[in-house]
Structure formats: structure tokens, C-alpha cells
Description:
- The chain is an alpha+beta fold.
- It has helices at 17-31, 45-53, and strands spanning 37-41, 57-65, 71-78.
- The protein has a three-stranded antiparallel beta sheet, with helices on one face.
Amino acid sequence: CVCARLLVAPGVRRLGVGRSLLSAAESHAAQLGLWPILDVVTLHEGAIRLYEECGWTCAGKVTATFGQGFSVDELVYLGPRPPML
């Protein structure tokens, strides 16, 4: 289950909004019996810190390449493994 586009407005960061969104995504994945994953651009240090504080595990680094030679480095994170897996 891919957690895509987990964004928090700058004005409400560090108030627990991101943690709540991540928790909701984890719960939804668990209800479906799926293992949540996400990717994050390596420059987003605050998000990376949040994922790690919430117990997500970095599975590795990838480079996403887009048109005209544009690319970004990302980290892939694994959320809590559902009990069934």
C-alpha cells in the first residue's frame, strides 16, 4: 500500500498533523492486510525524521528520473508490517 502525497502545510508543521496522517495511513493499510511504503525526497529532512521517529524503516535509496534529464534522489521507507505477513 503506497502512501502517496502526505503533505502538511508549513503553518501547521510540528503540531502532530503529519504524525496523525501517517498513523491513519498505517491503520488503513493494516485493515487491508497490506504493508505500507512511501518514498521521500532526500532533501526533506523533517519528513525523514518524522518517519523514523514513527518507526518506519529505510529500505534504500533510489533515483527517480523524469523527462529532460531531471532527477531526484529519494529514500524508500517501509511502515509497520501487518501481522498477517
